[in-house]
Amino acid sequence: MNDSAAAGPPRPAAGRRSFLAGLAAGMARADAGRADAGRAGGMDLRAAIEAIRCRADVPALAALSFCGAGVLEEAVTGSRRRGVSEAVVTSRDVFHVGSITKSMTAVVAASMVEAGVISWTTAVGEVLGGLPLHDDAKPVTLWQLLRHRSGLRRDLPEDLQERLGREGRSLMEQRRGLARVMLAEPLEQPPENGYSYSNAGYTMAGLMLETVAGQAWEELVAARVFLPLGLTSAGFGAPARTPTVTDQPWGHRADGSVVDPGPGDDNGPAMGPAGTVHLSLPDLATYARWHLREATPSPPLVTAASLARLHGVGQPDGYYGGWDRVARDWARGQALTHTGTNTMFFAAVWLAPARDFGVLAVSNQGGPAAAQACDAACAHLIQHHS
Predict the structure, then answer these.
(1) Residue 265 has what pLDDT?
(2) How many angstroms separate the most distant Cα atoms in the chain?
């Protein structure tokens, strides 16, 4: 994927398994106790994270460790905007978390399944039958969409997103317009023919949920996730709203160039269910901590049985409801992980429910340097608590 300044509107590139493989290697290095980019003997956490940030040359980097009861350590370094030294990033600033949004969509789905308004096996054709659906798409189920086993294309057509947005349609109407085109196409592979990451699939899952609920996905996730968890900073789109004020982190491309607030500063808003949420570091930690409490989710957004399904408890390594489940020695079994990027921010979360422990890291830059910085920050925290 090309996410350079010349690439045009940002393409979603979140939760990539290639990066997860690299991060897994970083975790293995931490397990072995070998030196990595995040280690700084004798230095406190902030100094270690600052050293990682400087080596990666990203404008800001924040990292945090936590358990179910609360935050263990946190450090925030750098600036909201490259070249503006007085715009110091703070622990209350909000960061775009890209495809970490997917697990939120899955929680909404589980809550609606429990309410009896939809089921895991509800097919696209049952909910969106009023659209011109290709025969391939009709039997695809909600659970297949949430597990990236639907066979749908990876990304949404950008030109169509832009046109629907210019026409002033509501987000529900925009998603329906996207479905009218994408679901009329043959699938790229048969459902259950293997894992195939799909932002389009999660967007279609969101459309199914909002269609049966009669409410936009944005309203559903706010009511069923943000509000009960007290995520007061959570919202949608790029954190910075105006090019004349630097009161929140601005996004930066992989080459380090700043992205002005305005058109092109985020994924198209219609792909919300796949990756448009932003929130503060403490609120992201609150959300992640909720996932640690598998046996007794509190507050009870969903039951323990539904959360176990979303986490793939008792199942082999693989992708379940918004999380990649992978075996790690440091996690004392299987860990849950996901990354998120809109190519201008980067976020990573690792959870070890068996240890009641997790780490996360965020940056206001996209691309490999930011991915490596978040990798090193997570590895440093894991090593520190091993």
Answers:
(1) 96
(2) 63
